[in-house]
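User: My collaborator and I are trying to settle a disagreement about how two of our proteins should look. Neither of us wants to argue from intuition anymore, so we agreed to look at predicted structures for both before our next call. Could you fold the first one, then the second, and keep them clearly separated?

Assistant: That sounds like a sensible way to settle it. I'll keep them separate. The first protein:
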Amino acid sequence: MFLNKLFFKYNLNSIPRRGFRKFCVEIHFLMLLMVSTNLVSQPIIDWHKTYGGSYWDESLCIQQTSDGGYITVGRTGSSNGDIFGHRGGFDIWILKLNNSGSIEWKKVLGGTGTDIAYTVFQTNDGGYFISSYTSSNNYDVLGNHGGDYDGWVVKLSSTGNIEWQKALGGSGWDAIWSSKQTDDNGFILAGRSNSSDGDVSENKGTFDYWIVKLDENGAIEWSKTFGGSMEDIGKTVMQTEDGGYLVAGESASTDGDMTASLHGNYDIWLIKLSGSGEMEWQQSYGGSAFETPSEIISANDEGYVITGYTGSPDGDVTGNHGILDVWVIKISNTGELIWQNALGGNQPDWGRAIVPAVNGGYIVAGTTHSSNGDVVGNDGGSEFWLVKLSEEGELIWQQTYGGSMPDECFSIDNTTDNGFILSGFTWSTDGDLAGSENKGYNDYCIIKLNPEPLSGTLSPLQIPGHLEIYPNPASQYISLKTPKDSPPIQIKILDVLGREVLQEDISNEEQISVQSLPNGIYTVLASTLDGKEYVGKVQKQ
């Protein structure tokens, strides 16, 4: 429609030579706008469902299963609604869903204490593996070592029956945050421990990284702790191609096993282990405040990508927007920092999970409380927040999902139709979640997204990079910054209907007045001398 209007406006044969450049520029920027809104438009909701009872219910992990359905796990404090068999306190609640979100089977696991699961995945034999922590020692939990908490792992059959379970730990506080199946059909676990007995051989001080290797039947092959005199917590683990392991977590130590530089209160601490659990190398990433990782995945070039969140404005962190930002870093296979991106607004924003995008780049899922900066479309409070990054770490698109009440996302997985499945919790029954039923407090919230709507009609144009705009929201003036600090040459600002409302040629660091613009959301397009194009959003208020 835009191009039809443009060609109607101009008769090509009547365009004077001096006006031809203006015509080309206008066509170029309108096509660029179409690229930013069509070629890189955000995935829409296929379906959404809520599950729960009258108390707290949170889904903390979801994965698609081999039959096209989904397995999800978290915690429940409810004893009614969709929940049957509540043991006491918080229990683990696992749901097996079909491909449209209907419940195929469900299980409550745990005892009369507190039981919270953080990881579930389908195993090579078609069953399921859950990693968690527990203070129980009855009902489903056997062998608790008597401390504050034990790590607890459960192997289920394909129909949800317990095949084996194991409480892991000592007399202190022990927890398992992350687990993966290994090439030998065993399991690698990562978490934290302050025990020095039972299954834990040594404590270095406060909490340590705690890494446990199990065989396929749950027997311990080895158990290792890593850390210093302060708090060190392993958050995510993966097996590497050489048969070793990468563990990412947070560290406040400057001694013991932590020999990498500490930038602030807490850094992301990455350790590379051999197949037998010996440390091969380590690296830290962060700034003067604190950084926490949530997940690490392999990149396409033998490197790795980590997502989490940061409160730092310095060190390895650039571009922080506020209290907490989603933080994504790309590292080489030896731990060298390649790029980083801090994403968010002036309120807390968390990166919880990351998956590779089908067409290249990465999809980061988490929670946002912001409604400015990189965040557009927040309906109120906290919402699910999805961000698409290029292979170089530049923001391609973002989308919020939720309603007027608190909504938080903890997990994402790719689906076989090239879409995505998200899990978390919600209190909302409006906005994107209109039609949902709230059973009481927060419920499990599962959102199935369609694939990214990629159109090939404008494929000759390169997808524009992310344009940083500040302040945002703005009332009088804005300044622009591109990721590579290229000085913008021509600036265009378009309203929500794609109409040009302002055009300027500016020099580097020159401010742009937006005082005359009505309040609203605007698209800002920048073209540089070296042929780069950038696009961003700004809120005028």
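The second protein, kept apart from the first:
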Amino acid sequence: MSGGAPGQSEKTSGQGGPDPAEWRRIFLALADGGSERERIRAAVSAVTSIAPSSVSGAAIKSEDGSEWTLLAREGQGEIRDAQGPAGDELQRILRQSADGWLRLDGSSSLCQAFQVGEGHVVPVSTGHRAMGVLFVGSRSEAALSHGQREALTLLSNQLAIGLENLRLRRKLERFTEIPGPRVKERRGDLHHSEDRLRVLLEVNNAVVSELDRQALFRSIAEALRSLLPFHRATLALLQGDGSHLQVLSLTSPGGNPTFQAEGGKLSVEGSVAGQVIRTSQPVIRHDLEKEAVAYEERMLREKGVRSYVSVPLVSKTKVLGLMALGSRSPGVYSDDDALFLTEVGKQVALGLDNMLAYEEVQELRRKVELEAEYLREEVLEAHAFGEIIGRSPAIRKIEEAVEQVAPTEATVLVTGESGTGKELVAREIHARSERRDHPLIKVNCAAVPRELYESEFFGHVKGAFSGAVRDRAGRFEAADRGTLFLDEVGEIPLELQSKLLMVLQDGTYQRVGEERVREVDVRIIAATNRPLEQEVDAGRFRKDLFYRLAVFPIEVPPLRERRSDIPLLAQHFVEQLSGDSAGAGLNLSRANVRNLQAYDWPGNVRELRNYVERAVIRAPSLGGRLVFDLPGSGDGPPVTEGGREEFYSSEGEPTVLTEREIRQREVENLKAALDRSGGKVYGKGGAAELLGLPPTTLSSRLKRLGIRSSGG
């Protein structure tokens, strides 16, 4: 009647509940934590760590149903006995919560007993026995998140398994005390057989201790082998929409006691497995040579199986799948065996339900951590340029395009040279879309090693390849219900583009090393500095993928084509980078503006920011003046008029050159480069090399300006 749960931590970890190490400690306390009362105390303590509230509690009835244990905990205080309602009232609450969560208002006797204004209860029950409820209460109305509900359901299931385990042990101990003659009399009784009780206990121990489905199944098979002969054991779990089963089989070739695992898929439609799932009733085949009716039975017969028994795995109100045993001999399994295996199946189903809930909670946690990891990277980059800044016609055109496409689900392809701000356009689209409350996840396709593309996009399972030491969610999964930004999409290897196309078409994918098909709801925004039409013509980019991505194209012009924005951008960066430093209050001079606008900016906005940052760093040592060492500019002291310096702010002078003058200067510069290179665009000594531009960028620019080259 005393003692708390050993090793219980009071820390909280958000909506997903305790971390994996803490879950393991909780599981151990519930599975092997002493008396029933001590295990209930451990569960009440864990409730607080999952859902911090005014009061957490439990109401658990004794094995014979004659008494109830009511424990309560206020905040982080001591766990105490509670004066609760009568057993009949508690039994009514237990019946009402049988199908899942139950909300109680302040008039409920249980809320009054715990002195709270509202409460939620989750049933503590095995597949065939209701034991009580866990309680979460608050003095003010407070909703539980999906993650908290999942974690509390996981906790209640684990408590049920722990209590059932303890009670099975006590029953087995009482049974072994029965005098020998009475044991013999009861050997044929399915529910009181010592051997079968021991097997149930071993199965329950496996359910309590194993959190890996393959390890759990192997332990269950080993426990069953001592009582029921078999050469093949099968565990099949329903997947996705329930149309097929994921099969895990353990086979013992040649009678070898060492089981080997094999997997596959099985359709529910037209199979005996589907019959077991639909009816929730076991199926026995005494001789497949005579009784095989479905395609999977003929396959079993070809593998040497002559008889088998298959039972459903029913967890509370839902069917998770089935478990089956098969033998090479005919007539091995009886109706009693099917009944016993059904009882085992209830325990296995509860354990699997628990395991699946645990996996979901952990997956949610990994996804949150993954999103946080990506967001940390994105936040650092997001502050590199600030918001989209500019007043030029080109910027206004981009803003109009963003306004048009953001509210839709259309895929967007953002094109433009490197450093023009394509990512900012993607962020603005996401921020104005219906997905803005969900993550924007970025993948730099050029930075992903070829051999890791699939893992980066779709994730992998532990052991899928060398170095895969744990399951990992991919970026598609992290972006679920949000937006995935594929930067430099033209860098994706041709042989991997088909897998990306499949996700865009079907909304489904598979992790590397996993057969499970997952669904995802993601909007795609792609960006590239390559001319993808030319890449398609050259056979380096799939045409069908290009059309999927380019539903709504947006071109971001280079900085030299919107020179009127240069002073605004430069002054913004000056203010952003100087901050509270000694360089605060710096402004651009008119000479600065002329020099900045005269330069062609091959690195675009990114290059401009770098030069501004360098000038801000040097300004204190130059008497508070901004000096830009641009190639060929000779940016010296600021121009003075009337003995004073003229500075430029974002509200100051207009640009020095008109758009027509800028365009004419660019055309003349390009023609001069072509003349010097003899009309050669590509290769050593070509115009692209002279201008310091990628050949594809130069070709695109020449085409846009209507300039023809005479060379290659």
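Some points you might bring to the call about the second protein. The chain is about 45% helix and 15% strand. The radius of gyration is 35 Å.
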